[in-house]
Each structure stands twice: as structure tokens, then as C-alpha cells.
Design goal:
tricarboxylic acid cycle, mainly alpha, binds s-citryldethia Coenzyme A
Length: about 400
């Protein structure tokens, strides 16, 4: 899109990096993965094809896709020691704490044999992370509810396999609902990458020192956990449950506008989008499809969310501040309908964003001009001289 706009020097001086992976136009509400509009990818592609696109820069043909999917499937299991590592956590640990620990622990398993200057090793690290994240997220859930781990079922596609690991048990046959599996696949596509957001910048900065890529992704997971970032979907659902009824919406809109109140409307506003987040519209459609498939079209939370969105979009404060729903506004409702526990919403976000993180890491580490990141500061402290000991002052 460089032909469509001219870089202003000021922009380049503040730009964190150059990248050809994802493009966002915050004013127009546009999002492109490798030049393809998110609206087209969400309709015509599945998550494995989008993973291939983000990693390799092109959509795969049938042969490339089959090889890619097979490669991912050959890495879906985790080392049994990782399974034992999970046992060290309290059962009521927040899943994001478990994910940070588990993915960080993968760096202990893939380090000595990993040469990040070797493109093949970098590709294998990427495939391992894409493949193992669903297994680890589902393990964290099963561990928290005291059920046995469900091992990956490689005859299923990515999202269906995740649902089986989440909701299947050793004693019952479980067939994922294909409509719901497709909806989950679309949720993963919508969260796959988003330019230089906080967690991606964390991964790039950590990776710029040459650190182990598994440890860098663990750093990205830690950053995503925050309620101002990936934790907003969990916070948004809790907010909707707290509001409870449409009659209380004005009270919360008022609080969101009150500078003396730290309350922010979760799922609204964005560092870059000053227009509708294109993902929010697609997430609303996906939410509608899932609720209809489950016969929950009268879901009170969905109705409350749509009314809250309508009122906020008509409010002069939100209009003036250019605050629109973001990707997190509907994702909590649809994930709750899919049976995903609230605390795991950000874990799903991390599972989806792993491909974005690793593609951005790969782009950075493969750049011969790449140097270690070293943000500067504006020093606001004093300059002083040491005076002799107190008794001489
Ligand atoms: C994600 O960066 C990414 O790409 C992130 C992400 C990704 O895919 O990686 O898109 C995922 O993190 C989406 C954002 C999820 N977070 C939330 O929904 C939490 C609620 N949103 C806010 O915390 C907030 O909107 C931020 C943190 C997202 C952005 O905050 P900014 O940078 O302050 O937004 P802004 O500059 O546009 O704010 C303008 C004004 C400010 O007030 P003033 O200083 O002008 O008086 O609007 C206010 C803000 O305080 N404001 C809000 C608000 N968001 C901004 N007021 C009430 N409710 C809100 N949600």
C-alpha cells in the first residue's frame, strides 16, 4: 500500500519497524494480512491457510496446504515431561499464567538443538508452536477442572481437534459440531495478527537479542494477558454480566465518560482504529451464527451488547473520541456460547496470535540489517553532585 500513501518522516521516525506482514488503516478501518483483506480471508480461507499465508507470504495451493497441515499435525503432541510440568501448577491457576509457564518451558526442550540462524530450524520452531498451542491451552483447561488430558486427534482439522481436546473425554465419543468448529476457526483468523501491537512488539524486542523463540512467545503471552490488550475479551464479558440489563447501560456509559472514574468500556476504543475495527463486524456476524446454531438467538448478553453498541455509537463522547467496538467486544459472547470458560478467552487469543507473533519474529530475525532493539527515553530526572558525609554538610 506504499503507493497509496506517502510516508511522512515523522511517521518513520516513530515507526517501530518495517514489515510486509500486516497492514492497518485505522481511519478507514482496514486490515490486510499479506495484502488480503480480512473480510475475504475470514470467508474464503481456513486458519491453516491463513497461518501459511502469514508465515510464507502467499496463500498455499492444494499440495502446499496438504504438506503444511501434515507438518503441523506431526507436532501436536507435547513431551510427556511438559505434561508433568503442568502438574506443578495449582488447579485454580489463571490459564494465562499456565500458558506463560508452559510455553516458556518449551524453550527448555528446544534450545540446544535450535540454531535460529538456520531457516529450517526457524520453520520447525514455528510449526511446533502453531501445533502445540491448542494442545497446551486445552491441557490447561482440563487440568483446571480435574479431567484427564485429551491427546490430539490428528484426523480432525485444527479447530475441531481443539474442541475435542477441550470438550471430549476418554469415556464418551465426541464429534465437534462443524458449524461451531468453523466459527472457532474464523475467530482464530480474526485474531491471527495485528501489526505491531503491544504483545507483538514484545516478541520482536525479546527476539532481537537472539533469545530462544519459545521464550519470546512466552513474553508475548505475558503481555497479551493485560486487560488493556488481549485480556479485554474476558473483561468485556464480565462488564456485560455486571451491567446485566439494558436499563443500566446509560449508567455505565456515563461512568466511561467520567474522567474521575477509571472505568473504561471494555471492547471499545483502540490505539490505531479510529473507525470500526473490521474484525468487530466479522465477530458480530460469527456470534450471530453460533447463537443461531445453538438456538440462543435470544441470548440476553448478545442483545445487551448490541444495545450497548448502539447507544455508545450515538453518544457524542464516543463519536468525538472516535471510540468504536474492537475485536474483543463480541468475542467473549461467542466464546461463552461455544462453551469456553471466561478465563480461557485470552488463551484462545494467544493460540490464534501465535502465528502472528512467530511470523513477525521470523521476519525480524531473518532481516540481515536487524539490530537488537533499544528504545530510548526522555530523561526527566535531576543531575546532582555527591556531597561529603552528613556530619560535614
Ligand atoms: C486489543 O494494538 C492492537 O492492535 C491490539 C489488538 C490486537 O489485535 O492486538 O487490537 C487487541 O488489544 C484491542 C483493545 C482491547 N482493549 C480494550 O477493549 C480495553 C478498553 N479500551 C481502552 O482501554 C482503550 O481504548 C485502549 C487501551 C484500547 C486504547 O486507549 P487509548 O490509546 O487511550 O485510546 P485513545 O487515545 O483513542 O483514547 C482517546 C480518549 C482518551 O481520553 P482522553 O485522554 O482524550 O481524555 O478516549 C478515552 C481515552 O481515555 N477512551 C475511552 C476508552 N478508550 C479510550 N474511554 C472510555 N472507554 C473506553 N473504552
Amino acid at each position: 500500500k506504499t503507493g497509496a500513501f506517502t510516508f511522512d518522516p515523522g511517521f518513520m521516525s516513530t515507526a517501530a519497524c518495517k514489515s510486509s506482514i500486516t497492514y492497518i488503516d485505522g481511519d478507514k478501518g482496514e486490515l490486510l494480512y499479506r495484502g488480503y483483506a480480512i473480510e475475504e480471508l475470514a470467508v474464503h480461507c481456513d486458519f491453516m491457510e491463513v497461518c501459511y499465508l502469514l508465515k510464507h507470504g502467499e496463500l498455499p495451493n492444494a499440495v502446499q496446504k496438504a504438506a503444511w497441515v501434515q507438518d503441523v499435525k506431526s507436532h501436536t503432541m507435547v513431551h510427556e515431561q511438559i505434561t508433568r510440568f503442568m502438574q506443578g501448577f495449582r488447579r485454580d491457576s489463571h490459564p494465562m499464567a499456565v500458558l506463560v509457564g508452559m510455553v516458556g518451558a518449551l524453550s527448555a526442550f528446544y534450545h540446544d538443538s535450535l540454531d535460529i540462524n538456520n531457516p529450517e530450524h526457524r520453520l520447525t520452531a514455528a510449526v511446533r508452536l502453531i501445533a502445540k498451542m491448542p494442545t497446551i491451552v486445552a491441557m490447561a483447561y482440563k487440568y483446571s477442572i480435574g479431567q484427564p488430558t485429551m491427546y490430539p486427534c490428528n484426523k480432525l482439522d485444527y479447530s475441531a481437534n481443539f474442541m475435542k481436546m477441550m470438550f471430549g473425554t476418554p469415556c464418551e465419543d465426541y464429534e465437534p459440531n462443524p458449524v461451531l468448529a468453523r466459527a472457532l476457526d474464523r475467530i482464530l483468523i480474526l485474531h491471527a495478527d495485528h501489526e505491531q501491537n503491544a504483545s507483538t512488539s514484545t516478541v520482536r524486542l525479546a527476539g532481537s537479542s537472539g533469545a530462544n523463540p519459545f521464550a519470546c512467545i512466552a513474553a508475548g503471552i505475558a503481555c497479551l494477558w493485560g486487560p488493556a490488550h488481549g485480556g479485554a475479551n474476558e473483561a468485556c464479558l464480565k462488564m456485560l454480566e455486571e451491567i446485566g440489563d439494558v436499563s443500566r447501560v446509560p449508567e455505565y456509559i456515563k461512568r466511561a465518560k467520567d474522567k474521575n472514574d477509571s472505568f473504561k468500556l471494555m471492547g471499545f476504543g483502540h490505539r490505531v482504529y479510529k473507525n470500526f475495527d473490521p474484525r468487530a463486524k466479522l465477530m458480530r456476524e460469527t456470534c450471530h451464527e453460533v447463537l443461531n446454531e445453538l438456538g440462543l438467538h435470544d441470548d440476553p448478553l448478545f442483545k445487551l451488547a448490541m444495545e450497548l453498541e448502539r447507544i455508545a455509537l450515538e453518544d457524542e463522547y464516543f463519536i468525538e473520541k472516535k471510540l468504536y467496538p474492537n475485536v474483543d467486544f463480541y468475542s467473549g459472547i461467542v466464546q461463552k456460547a461455544l462453551g469456553i470458560p471466561t478465563q480461557l478467552f485470552t488463551g484462545i487469543f494467544a493460540m490464534a496470535r501465535t502465528i502472528g507473533w512467530i511470523a513477525q519474529w521470523h521476519e525480524m530475525i531473518g532481516d540481515p540489517e536487524q539490530k537488537i532493539g533499544r528504545p530510548r527515553q526522555l530523561y526527566t530526572g535531576a543531575e546532582r553532585r555527591v556531597v561529603p558525609p552528613m556530619d560535614q554538610r
